[in-house]
Structure formats: C-alpha cells, structure tokens
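chain and backbone:
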Amino acid sequence: MAREINIRRGVDWITVLLYLSLVLIGYFNIYAAVYNPEDPITILSLSHNAGRQLMFMGLAVIIITLILFIDYKVYESFAYIFYAFMILLLIATIFIGADIKGSHSWIKIGTFSIQPAEFAKLATSLALARYLSSTNVNLKRFRDTWKAALLILLPPIIIILQKETGSALTFAIFIVVLYREGLPGLFPALFLSVVALLILTLLYPKLYIIIGLVVLALFVWQFVFTKRDRNRQNFFKITGIVVLFSLFSVGVDFFINDILQPHQQKRIQTLVDPDADPLGAGWNVTQSKIAIGSGGIIGKGYLQGTQTKFDFVPEQSTDFIFCTIGEEWGFLGSIILISLFLALLSRILYLAELQRDRFARIYGYCVASIIFFHLLVNIGMTIGLMPVIGIPLPLISYGGSSLWSFTILLFIFLKLDAHRSFKV
C-alpha cells in the first residue's frame, strides 16, 4: 500500500498543471466563441458547446482517475489487442458511421458523436512502442522497418476510406519517432524531399518541376560527386530518383483531381491562392486572419471579439478556436498559449529521456509528436500557412473525442513515468 501511495506521488505535477491550464483556457474560449450578450446561456446547459465541453471535462477527470489506478503493465501487455480492436472499429465506421460534412468517420451515440480516428493515434502509439521496444527489433534492417511502417500506415489508409484525410495525415509525424529509435537519416531526408516536392508541384507547372529536377541532378553529378563516384551504378541511381520524383509530381494532379473530395480540392486551391475565391473556399482563412490580426497586441478583451460574436469564422469553437484567442487576447495571449504548449512538449520529451524502460520512452515520443503535429497544423491553417484539413487544437478545441483522446494519450505516459523509480 505504501508503495502504491509513493507511485501516486510520482505523477509529474508540472505536466498535470500544464494540462489543466490548457484545458481551462480551451473551455473559456469555447464559451467566448458561443457567447451572445443578447441571448445569455446557462453554463451547464447542454444546448451549446460550452455546456457540453464542461461535461466532457468532467468525464475526462473520471478517465484520468481510471488510468492512474490501472496497473501500468496493462498498457504494454494489451497494446496489440487495443490496436487490433481500433482497426476493426475503424473498418466498421466506414459502414456504420454517420455522414457528417461528407465524412463517415463519426459514430453517433444518441445526441453525441465519437470519432474513432482520434483514438486510433493512441492505439498506434501503444502498438508502435510495443513493437519498437521488442528485443530483436532494429530499424536499420529493412524487415523491421517495413513492419513498423505497416503498423503506422494501416490506420490512416482506413481513415482515408472514411473520407477523413485530415486525421490520416497526422500519422506522418510518427517518422520522428522512428528516427529517434534508429531509422537511418536517409528516410527522413527522403520524406522531407517528398513534402518539398509536393509543395513545389502545387505552386509551379509540372514541366518546370521536372526541368528543375534534371538540372539539380546534373549539378550533383558534376560538382558533388568525385570522379571516382561518377560510375554507371550511381548514374542509374540518380536517373532513377529523377524519374521517380517526376512521376510523383505528375501523380499529384491525379491524386488531387480523382482521389480528394471537392471540398478538399478547394482547400488546397485556397492554400495556393487564398484570394482566388475569397467569398467561397477562401472565406474561412480570410476571416480567420482578419480575426487574429484585429486582436492587435493585447486583444479586444474577453467576450469582446466582434468576428467571434457575428460568426464570421465558421467552426469557431473547433478547428478555428485559435481565432478567438487571437482576437480577444491578442498577440500576447497567443504567445502565452503557444508557450504553454512548448512547455508541455519540452516536459514530455524531458521525461521521455529519463525513462529506463524503452516502451515508456518511445511512447513518450509518440505523445509529443502527435501534440506537436496538431499544434503546428492547426495554428498554421488559421493564419493561412497550412491547408485547412480539419484537425483540432489539442485540449483547446471543442469536442469530446479530441479531449478524451489527448487526455488518455498524455496520462498513460504520466502513469508509465510514475513507475520509473520502481523499474529494475
């Protein structure tokens, strides 16, 4: 019993306080997003997002309590079982999911909806940590790398079939975890090259991209390779890379025009040229930037945001919650929020590096990577630097699925960290 009490005291309270701060900031800004001075709302009413979010927060407290009382060994022992269950649930969602804004990624339970894709990131984190922490796994071997890639890629493939591309893109961040655990640097470099090529393909004609690739290859051949390196084998390697990248560039058009949904195509077009359709596809981003910019240095004051009050920005309490913060709390408030997130990420990484158990360390990196990706993309899309792919701001945006998934994700790690001193 004494040992269990010590373990409870071992929970990192700095991380807990950062979590509570972000959740409370989220709640107050959700309330601000739905607040109407002409039609006052009761704080406990389930008829609006603020009341429902308060209920979600109460359930999150129950979830945290359960996580901290469950034996920490359960999370590693049942990682694969949880992953398999989530795969089956994702597949089932394709057929039984409710159609919400063109996506079949939600399961309706009474008046509420749950998005399994949010919890799939948790399941993948546990399964990936379990696999990579296995004794004989070495990511320098192609066989082991392929198995890890399969664990990561299977959920987003199913999620794409649900027509929920935004959530599927989140899984790309797991490459950071693989790199930390020994993946050769060539793979992240190749990944970043593909991302850069994708962006260039969206901005410039394909012919220019192909010519640029050929010129770059000739430069490398002439000025980077030594005379000894200029052999037939390396020539075919460079030629092959140019051909593959060129085919990728050509295939982007097919993906955009034949795979993506019309609303997703408009989002990409808006990212490339935000002014092309300011009253249509570009409306959200344009109004979002106006709202954030109008906040100035110190903001208009709590509950005083005009862009918020008159619903100029759709999805104000979910995907675009950062607009409310930028408008009412200004640049300083935005910086404070981002600083809290950076403090949380730094704390998670610090604790991850302290872990004696490899499973706990890898899982900690998964948690930090997922939160970082959501933070980067969500804020990026509100200021026009990222496509609007519809992913929430962690612990801030309205939604039970989002709040609960990030809560479980974080507190499982805190449970694992609490037992760090007792590892043998």
Remarks:
- Strands lie at 98-100, 103-109, 112-114.
- Residues 1-7 have pLDDT under 50 and may be disordered.
- The longest strand covers residues 103-109.
